[in-house]
Design a protein that fits this description.
250 residues; alpha/beta; Rossmann fold; 5 helices
């Protein structure tokens, strides 16, 4: 079975991986998918904002994207998110492996369960991110010259605006570590379809209130992104569908 990498801001292709473009349609819409060729034929790539970064976070067709990966036989996803850091404990350009989330999004199509079928209409989120792949991200990070922090809680906001200092202070009080706009509903949509989902966040700025004004980091970011892609490919190569257990449906 193929495995998938989902890319966000700044990740519009997989460096060194030859791919073939394919449109995959389902009842939710059409997703542009890139299927690996040659030695990477078991890798599927999706860039949620499009290769020209034309789709803002609140307009991404999350259900069409996740359903398309499911229809291609994907059972494992490693996703990447460009984020702001809510705490100086997570410096810019250090990766953060996600283990939990706080969802403040609204107005999105956030579930496949539009009706309860066969008494199933809920996905259990005690462990939203696959522990097997998450552990592997940590274990292999040094190999790819990446400083990687474990245990991050992702705060999902609606966007496209950035957050206010008061909002960031609230997220800090609630236990958030990084803030972004796209992890939700992706993580629980994947869970609803029985797929295993792991994720890394790349802080590219300190959030509002942590510095005088938000400054997006630019130096050395391309190398970090390339290392991150190689790490995700390595994780998918080093794990299997059978050793990962998807969230429980209730």
């Amino acid at each position: 079975m193929p495995a998938a990498i989902m890319g966000g801001t700044g990740i519009y292709n997989l460096s060194g991986v030859e791919v073939e473009s394919k449109e995959v349609s389902n009842k939710y819409g059409t997703a542009q998918i890139y299927i690996g060729k040659g030695e990477h034929e078991d890798i599927v790539f999706l860039t949620r904002h499009g290769r020209d970064h034309s789709t803002p976070p609140h307009r991404v067709n999350y259900r069409a994207n996740i359903q398309a990966l499911k229809d291609l036989g994907v059972r494992r996803i490693v996703s990447t998110y460009a984020v702001g850091s809510v705490t100086t404990d997570y410096p810019v350009l250090d990766l953060a492996v996600l283990r939990d989330f706080l969802d403040f999004t609204h107005g999105r199509e956030f579930s496949f369960f539009d009706e309860i079928e066969r008494a199933v209409g809920h996905v259990e989120m005690s462990q939203p991110f696959c522990p097997v792949m998450s552990d592997k991200l940590i274990a292999l990070s040094n190999k790819h010259d990446i400083k990687c922090h474990d245990g991050a809680t992702y705060v999902a906001t609606n966007g496209p605006r950035f957050e206010s200092p008061a909002e960031i202070k609230m997220y800090q009080m609630l236990g958030g570590h990084v803030v972004g706009m796209t992890c939700c509903p992706e993580v629980y949509l994947a869970g609803e379809l029985g797929m295993n989902f792991a994720a890394v966040a790349l802080p590219i700025n300190l959030a509002a209130g942590l510095e005088e004004k938000i400054t997006l980091v630019e130096d050395n970011i391309d190398q970090v992104r390339e290392n991150m892609i190689n790490l995700m490919l390595d994780v998918l190569r080093s794990t299997s569908d059978d050793e990962c257990t998807p969230p429980i449906l209730l």
